[in-house]
Amino acid sequence: MKITAAAIQMPSVPLDVAGNCERADALLRQAHDQGTDLAVLPEMFNTGYGWGHDFDPIAEDADGPTVRLLRERAAQWKMTIAAGFVEQDGHHLYDSLGLFTPDGKIAVYRKRHLVFWERFKFLPGRQPVIARTPFGRIGFAVCADMIYRRTWDDYRDRVDLAVISSAWPEFAHQQNGRKHWLFGHIGHLSGEIPCKVGRDLNIPVIFSNQSGQTRTTIPMLGTWVMEKIKDRFAGLSSVCDGNHGGPVRAGVEEQVVVSGITIHSPRGPKSCHSMYPSDQKARSSVSAPSGSASPPSGFTGATVADAQ
């Protein structure tokens, strides 16, 4: 099966949900106008990404403005949309990635491998999530998740394509480009890892990264001291078609990358499964790993994601 995928690379203004959603909406329209079936937005595209921001007032459940917008656009344009946002579940926040399908269903994956300041803001997710769609089974990762072998071992031979939403930094000074004294340049990895994953698993991978300037906050080893550097996001969003050819990749500025991908023999029901069960009967239809998160309010109407 051939479909058209889009990796949307954009800058986000911290805490400006309305402005960021307006920018993303225009870029999604560009993707739609080019015949896109599946579009991916960056990690925390609507809130911006960075230490020192209070995400509590703008975190969202199923009734949030960002979630409503993406559900509406998916239905209106008959386009599946994946997007990173700050999810609220009771008193807890998660760095989450939602998949919005034209039939109104939502699957939500929570970032499992939190890094740097994220550990002070969010709880980690506990399980992989696989969404079943008409064009195949989709596995998810958020930014640093993609560097862990466990992430992809969980999906090996169980998914037909993967989506990665990211706010991957360059670790280079935003003005002079000088690399960080400890980490050096890591931006190039955002252009390399998704395609290596695609070749290893022999599946397409759509990788969407933020662009523009940021401030990276790094806890110093063994202390509570934070080092803050003027950084920039690495960009290099891409659509990689597994072993079917080279990637189509963005530069470092705002861009919509659109390309065809090849999906092999999707199996299973043609529906999207959420990690949030709506009732016990639904829960029993598929199983989740031990230690999975309890279902939050909202995000109902589907069964637990098939992580088998």
Structural overview:
- The protein is 19% helix and 27% strand.
- With 308 residues, it is of the alpha/beta class.
- It has a single domain, classed as Carbon-nitrogen hydrolase (Nitrilase/N-carbamoyl-D-aminoacid amidohydrolase, 4-Layer Sandwich), CATH 3.60.110.
- Strands 5-4-3-2-1-14 form a six-stranded mixed β-sheet. Strands 6-7-8-9-12-13 form a six-stranded mixed β-sheet, with helices on one face. A two-stranded antiparallel ribbon has the order 10-11.
- The longest helix has 17 residues, at 17-33.
Task: Describe this protein with a few key phrases.
308 residues, single chain, 6-stranded mixed β-sheet, 27% strand, disordered C terminus, Nitrilase/N-carbamoyl-D-aminoacid amidohydrolase, alpha/beta
Give a quick precis of the structure.
The protein is of the alpha/beta class. The protein has one domain: Nitrilase/N-carbamoyl-D-aminoacid amidohydrolase (4-Layer Sandwich), CATH 3.60.110.10.
> How many domain units?
1
CATH domain class name: Alpha Beta
State the shape: globular
Low-confidence stretches: 268-298, 300-308
By DSSP (H or I, 4+ residues per run), the number of helices equals: 6
Please trace the helix and strand order, writing H or E for each element: EHEHEEEHEEHEHEEEEEEH
Taking Cα atoms only, what radius of gyration do you get, to the nearest Å? 18 Å
CATH topology: Nitrilase/N-carbamoyl-D-aminoacid amidohydrolase
Question: How much beta, percentage-wise?
Answer: 25-35%
The biggest sheet, with number of strands, parallel, antiparallel or mixed sense and barrel status, is: 6 strands, mixed
Strand order of the largest sheet: 5-4-3-2-1-14
Number of E-type strands: 14
CATH architecture: 4-Layer Sandwich
Helical fraction equals: 10-25%
**Mean model confidence by pLDDT:** 82
Alpha-beta classification: alpha/beta
**CATH homologous superfamily - what is it?**
Carbon-nitrogen hydrolase
